[in-house]
Design brief:
221 residues, alpha+beta, two-stranded antiparallel sheet
Length: 221
């Protein structure tokens, strides 16, 4: 059952944005937020077990109705904010022909809790968020994890730069407007909704920790 689900996920990820995260203490990244205000969502952090036996966490959006399998298990969702960012970090990937290539400036999903979103709200209200890069720094590990956000100088971004940062399969959805970026975000969040048949017997809510809440990460902050 899990192997089948993993294959389905691999197919779905072909049109899914990666989620932004910082893995270790002192890791940092420069990012450009593409939306001034996030979408508020309710998240279940679901522990999965892959076919190779390793466990990992996956963000699943609560449907907030009787069809949510995780609410039925007694797992209470956490309110978080979701938005889009351009991750400035360089990375290496393998193309369809098996050749390794280098790239950077990739649009990703940014999902975080109220503490981080509160810092972003302050920058947005005082200086504007989308017209400057910010540096996000992770401090600590486990339940002691926190994040610091440093704002950069004002430097407007062009529609061409945003379009080039989007993957090929959703580039045509962007027409240069903020509304079209919200449409892309909404489409991505829809693909994360919990499904009635999404029950995973390997899930154990007691193994969740506070660190996971802040790592994976109506409108408004």
């Amino acid at each position: 059952k899990e192997a089948k689900r993993q294959e389905e996920l691999r197919q779905q990820r072909k049109e899914r944005l990666y989620e932004f995260f910082l893995k270790d203490d002192r890791d940092e990244a420069d990012v450009r937020f593409l939306l001034e205000e996030p979408c508020n969502i309710r998240i279940h952090q679901v522990q999965r077990r892959a076919a190779n036996g390793k466990t990992y966490y996956e963000n699943v959006i609560c449907t907030e109705d009787n069809n949510c399998p995780y609410c039925e298990q007694g797992d209470n969702p956490t309110v978080k904010g979701a938005t889009l960012v351009i991750d400035r970090r360089p990375y290496e990937y393998t193309d369809e022909k098996g050749k390794k290539r280098k790239a950077q400036n990739t649009v990703k999903l940014f999902i975080q809790g109220t503490k981080v979103m509160g810092q972003l709200e302050r920058i947005s209200e005082k200086y504007g968020l989308t017209d400057r890069d910010v540096t996000i720094i992770r401090l600590g590990t486990g339940t002691g994890t926190s994040y610091t956000i440093e704002r950069g100088d004002e430097e407007p971004i062009t529609t061409k730069e945003i379009k080039n940062a989007l993957p090929d399969w959703c580039r045509d959805q962007y027409d240069g407007t903020e509304d079209s970026l919200y449409d892309i975000l909404e489409d991505q969040l829809t693909k994360m909704l919990a499904k009635p048949d999404d029950y995973d017997s390997d899930y154990d809510e007691d193994e969740d920790d506070d660190d996971q809440e802040d790592i994976m990460i109506g409108g408004g902050f």
